[in-house]
Design a protein that fits this description.
single chain, alpha+beta, 9% strand
Length: 338
């Protein structure tokens, strides 16, 4: 990547980083407001984590190490909060807001073309001192009808969010989505589905599932969307574009599974005959499909993300060397070919 290309990339980085920074600040203020009212806002915690995680990744791409360092400390704490049902201490919210302001100052400096200063020892000590209080014990509940393979993927606060919604008179709902070329052509993907459902419900979690090969389905990747709402399934179907039978309640009593193996969860993945017809599952659907375990796919995506970050950091270093008169032709060719 040449120096002009890198400057263009940094300009785009500044715009996107500022958007995620504004989102993180807004979510932290929402968490603070909820805390003052004696409530929790797990969605805001999760969204703050995602914004800071994105800022860290983008900053690593352009080699802004001070921002990477600050964001990493913050996201580490928020990851633990995201995995628990613990309310954030007020002092932690104050420290996180201080960290957001520190990142903002460095983004402004980068936009002016100034050097980006390393974080102060005081700031790092403050972020390193963050800690969570012991998580409250959430009693087991028979209300969530969800197979064990999916239930164990939910964080305690996500289970608590669903059960609290039920206790408050809302409905906990599961939506099953099976991507297909036909739906993609109609503009219906998992991302667009989340946006549509988000207008009529609170989405708690989207879980990917590997659909096993069977006589009724060619296999592939499916998604389970867990949400809570006061709207009916008919409302959800109209808003999302899915069939009515794609939605099911999570509030029925749990049935005892016949076994603890994978075969106990496979029936939930079977499509009804109308759904199979709608998805276009036929003998030709098997062609051109590679079935990969979801955990391996996640690992591959993580590895690819790391490689992209490394490539941009290498391009940044090469551009800096080139500006100092170092011959980087061979290195630049390697980067271009990667």
């Amino acid at each position: 990547m040449t120096a002009p290309e890198l400057r263009d990339f940094i300009a785009a980085y500044l715009v996107e980083a500022e958007e995620h920074l504004a989102a993180a600040s807004s979510q932290l203020l929402a968490i603070e407001s909820a805390q003052q009212n004696g409530e929790t806002n797990p969605r805001a915690v999760r969204e703050t984590f995602r914004s800071l995680h994105t800022i860290k990744g983008l900053s690593a791409m352009v080699g802004v190490e001070p921002i990477v360092t600050i964001a990493h400390r913050m996201e580490t704490f928020l990851r633990e909060a995201d995995r628990s049902s613990t309310a954030l201490p007020m002092k932690a919210i104050d420290a996180l807001l201080h960290g957001v302001r520190a990142i903002e100052q460095r983004i402004v400096a980068l936009g002016r073309g100034d050097a980006v200063s390393a974080p102060s020892e005081e700031l790092m000590a403050r972020l390193d001192s963050l800690g969570l209080s012991p998580a409250p014990v959430v009693p087991a509940t028979p209300l969530l009808e969800l197979e064990a393979a999916l239930l164990e993927k939910l964080a305690p606060f996500e289970r608590d969010q669903l059960t609290r919604a039920i206790a408050g008179g809302e409905r906990a709902v599961r939506a099953d989505f099976y991507p297909s070329p036909e739906r993609a052509a109609e503009g219906l993907s998992i991302n667009s589905l989340r946006e549509r459902l988000g207008t009529v419900a609170e989405i708690v979690r989207v879980l990917p599932r590997a659909v096993p090969v069977s006589a009724n389905a060619p296999g592939g990747l499916a998604f389970v969307v867990l949400l809570h709402t006061r709207r009916t399934n008919e409302d959800l179907a109209r808003a999302s574009g899915l069939r009515l039978d794609a939605f099911g309640s999570l509030t029925r009593e749990l049935a005892e599974p016949e076994s603890t193996g994978l075969e106990a969860t496979e029936p939930a993945l079977e499509l009804s005959a109308p759904a199979r017809e709608e998805e276009g599952f036929d003998s030709h659907a098997r062609r051109g499909i590679v079935r990969v375990d979801v955990t391996r796919l996640d690992a591959a995506m993580d590895g690819l993300s790391s490689l992209i970050v490394t490539r941009f950091r290498l391009a940044h270093a090469a551009a800096a060397l080139s500006e100092r008169g170092v011959n980087t032709r061979e290195l630049s060719q390697i980067i271009a070919d990667s």
